[in-house]
Each structure stands twice: as C-alpha cells, then as structure tokens.
Amino acid sequence: MRISSISPRAVAQSARIIPKRHLSTSPVLRRAFEDGDYVLLRDKKDASSDGTLIKLRAAKITVTHRGKIQHDDIIGSQKRQIVNSSKGTAYRIHEPTLAEYVRLTPRIVTPIYPSDANLIVSLLDIHVDTCGTPDAGKAPFEILEAGTGHGALTLHLSRAIHAANLPLPQIPHYADTQEPEDAVYLGESLSDLREASLDSWKQSRCAVVHTLDIARKHSKHAEKVVRGFRNGVYARNVDFHVGDVSEWIASQKVLRQSDGPFLSHVFLDLPSADRHIDNVASALHVDGFLAVFNPSITQITECVEKIREEKLPYLLDQVVELGAGTIRQWDVRAVRPRMTVKTSVDVGSEVGSASGTSTDAVEGQVARDNELAGEPASKPEKWAMVCRPKVGEMVIGGGFLALWRRMEQAPKTAS
After folding, report:
1. What are the distances in angstroms from CA 374 to CA 330, 378, 379?
2. In the 8-state DSSP scheme, what is residue 371?
3. CA-based diameter of the chain, in Å?
4. Does residue 235 sit in helix, strand or coil?
5. What is the pLDDT of residues 17-53, one digit of tens each?
6. Mean pLDDT along residues 230-254
7. 40, 163, 268, 300 — which has fewest CB within 10 A?
8. Backbone φ/ψ region at 125: left (φ over 0), alpha (ψ -120 to 50), beta
9. Which residues contact 243 (CB under 8 A, 6 or more apart)?
10. Would you call 332 exposed, middle or buried from its count of C-beta atoms within 10 A (0-12, 13-18, 19+)?
11. Signal peptide location in the record (predicted)?
12. CB atoms within 10 A of CB 86
C-alpha cells in the first residue's frame, strides 16, 4: 500500500489506536530498559569512571576486562540497579545524559564537545513558545546547521527547540531489521501508515533544525547518533540534508516559491565559511544570528574581510575563543594603517625602549591600535586586521566562534 492511497481519516484513526510509547524523560515514570536502548555501565566501586556505553540487544554479550555482561540481564532493569559480570564485578546501570552520550558514542569525525555545544546554543539565545495548535499564518522557527559532523550540536539545537513542537501521536521505533512487506525509509523499516503519519506531523512543526553536510557518510552517521539518543526523542525536530549550503538555500527558495528570508539562525562549521555568507544573508531573518565556528582565528578574519569588502548586511556581535572550562573574547576588526615612513631616529628610539623595562604592555598595544586606526593619507592603503585576545590568560580551546546579527538592508538611494 502506497502513501498516496492512505486517506487523512485513516491516519487520524491510527493515531488513536496505536498505543503511545512513554519516554524515559517523564518525571513520573520509571521505565524499564528495553531492547535497543543505550545504557551506561559504571563499576559500582568506581563511580568517577566514564563507564561503558552499550546498546542493548537481546541475547548479545558485551566483553570487558572484568568479565562478560549479558544484555538480557539488563533488559527489564531500571536505572541505578546492579548487573554482575561473569567474573562477579558489579556494575551500576545508568541512563546516559546528553553529554555522556555525545562523548562516548562511536565517531568518524571529531564532535563539538558538550561544553562548547551548550555555550553555542546559549549564545544563540534561542527562545521558543509551546505550539498549542499550528498557526498557518506564522512562519516556523528554522535553524540551519551547515556541517553536521558527529551530530553533537544537532542534538543540542534540537533539545533547545523541542518544546515548540506538538507531540507525535506515536513515536516510531526505528528498527535495524526490515520487516516483511514494509517500505524502506532511510534504510530503516517503517510501515506505510507510520510514514504517512510522520509526514503529516512534520507539516505542522513550529520549529525545525535543518542540518546539512557535504559528505553523505557523515550525515548518515550523525542521523544514527541523533536517533539513538533516548529512542529518538529529539530526532523528529531535525531534517538531514546532504550537499552544498549555498545550493541548498537556492533549492529551498525554489521549493518555497519565495525569495524572502526563512531562517531564524544559521550556524556554519565549514572550512571556507566566507564563500557562503553572502548567500546566507538573503535567507536569514533580520536580527537573526549568523554563527561561524572555526579552529583558526584567521578563518574568522576572512569572514570579517568579506563582509567589509562586499558591504554585506551583518553587524559583528562578538568573537569568542572556546576553551576548556572558560571562554575569552577576541578583538577582531579591520582598520586602515596610516602611511608613516619610520625614520632611523624612530627605529632607534623603538629599539631603545624595547631594551629597557616594559612599563605597560597593554598601553603599548593600545597605542599601536590607535596608530593603525589613524587618519589615512591621501594615497589609499589596504586594510589591516587587528586580531588579539581582549582579556584573560592563554587557554587551550576548541576553536573560535564569531556571531553576527543580520541587519536591515540599506535602502538604495536614487541616482
């Protein structure tokens, strides 16, 4: 039976007759672990260890250096109960947190670690309202993440918008095996009725995370990671795409039959983000954030230069260095260097002052910035970049995050 042959009434009836699957996030329910759940096992005598993350499978055995653990001994148990290995080692059963799940799941690319992902979501300042009934006149809250990678930030973004969407009438169980006579959906077995119900629900979403990666392999792996967390509780808020971000934006405009903006925020985790920020501008709502995450500060300066040279409608909000346990802001801006020919006297005095004791390194840097920002001479010069930490000590961090606000397009003046 094909999807097109299913009537809306049948879909509505199926929502009433299919039993609701309770999620482990409910504060009033203590759900027993089931086949397909992820659990975290920690040595009872060493609660500080990271533990072992396993996906439960009936009749499967996990081998550790402290003995074999039968999955059947865990299935049916509840959180914080004890399971014993074949050598008598006692393990306490935990439901992994989002941070633990992201850190311990198998990876094919380096993830954005939980501390950085939480900070990025916080800086985007995401606020969504609970969607009681779909409002046809109100545009959905849409976020674009370009550079899916491991799916770590995808999960954090989806959690941030989760309250905006209506609950599904039935949470699909994503099985790894194909059931007889069932249609195949993204490599997984789903009945036609469930697929039709899910497609109908997606049309009513009030908030969506579009995540895009250039590599199909990475996108597939990230999709598996997102669906694996707590029975896919956040997977329904996410649409996965493969391709180039500029091409995806162009295709969305054709699909939506509109050239207007449709994205609330955009996050670019790409090696050449500066090549796409002009195309992003036309799709980003006014006052929305453009966030660029790169491992090198020079990649951020390329975006700053691109915006200045092409007069793109962005206003730099802040640049921060993400590190272990803390962040620090960076001063990244373009200035015109003054055309000043240093005489030998100037050079001599510079060397002399350098050989003496340094009174104030900060004042010296400020003076240098003031010199660079001085009035240009009659002959135009290229712009130079001021790029240095504002405050704080050196931190070994995970990268640099730049945030721009989308401005109103400047009105065109009549010639």
Report:
1. 21, 13, 14
2. H
3. 90
4. helix
5. 444 444 445 444 568 999 999 999 999 988 788 899 9
6. 96
7. 163
8. left
9. 212, 214
10. buried
11. none
12. 13
Q: Tell me what the mean pLDDT of segment 140-150 comes to.
A: 96
Residue partners of 279: CB distance under 8 A and separation at least 6? 245, 246, 249, 250
Instruction: Please give the structure tokens belonging to residue 182.
Output: 């069932």
**Is 96 in contact with 33 (CB distance < 8 Å)?**
no
**pLDDT per residue over 273-291, tens digit each?**
999 999 999 999 999 999 9
Domain residue ranges in the chain: 25-94, 100-332
pTM: 0.73
User: Which amino acid appears at position 142 of this protein?
Assistant: E
Taking the C-alpha atoms of residue 195 and residue 205, their distance in angstroms, rounded to an integer, is: 16
Strand 52-55 versus strand 38-43 pairing type:
antiparallel
213 has pLDDT over 90: yes
Place of tokens 């790409």: 270
pLDDT value at residue 37: 94
Instruction: Tell which CATH classification among 3.20.20.70, 3.40.50.170, 3.30.830.10, 3.10.330.20 matches the domain 25-94.
Output: 3.10.330.20
Residue pointed to by tokens 């961090």: 397
Q: What share of the chain has pLDDT > 90, as a percent?
A: 54
pLDDT of residue 384: 56
Computed over every residue of the chain, the mean pLDDT equals 79
